[in-house]
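From the thread on structure requests for the teaching lab: each student submitted one protein with a one-line request. Submission from student K.M.:

"Model YCII-related domain-containing protein from Winogradskya consettensis, tokens only."
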Amino acid sequence: MVRPEISSEVSVDSGGGSLVEKADGPLEAPGRMDTDMAKYLVLIYGDEQEWDSASPAELTAKHAAHGAFAAAAGPAILGGEQLQAASTATTLRTLSDGRAVPTDGPFPESKEVLGGYYVLEAPDLDAAVALAGMLPEIAESGGGVEIRPIVSRKS
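Reply posted by the TA:
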């Protein structure tokens, strides 16, 4: 099963430090210092059948679009990963006796599946929405992006 990658390799210097994604690891901003800016989880959804049937040219265009997103977002990207196929997911459900039982696949029966994510740091939701609006999955049939604030637990 061929899955689109978030990006093959990106290296960006946006003044606040470099941002690097390697094929074998997440996007990272080395040496980042904690800030008071909010963090947002950007969940990338799409139609797995469309991803699997994409031509090499379509995959190249998607890789380029994610590279452009990474370049524009710069050090605002705190992490990100492409996920394996939904068929590899395991969901835990609790039975009436309190035991947690693993089942194959994602919980909802849906054509739209979670394909990847980014963790962004932004001054506010409007800024996070503006960045996430650059992702190519928004323009895909059956695709979309969910943006959720991350709860900050300061000690």
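TA comment: The chain has a mean pLDDT of 79. The chain is about 20% helix and 35% strand.
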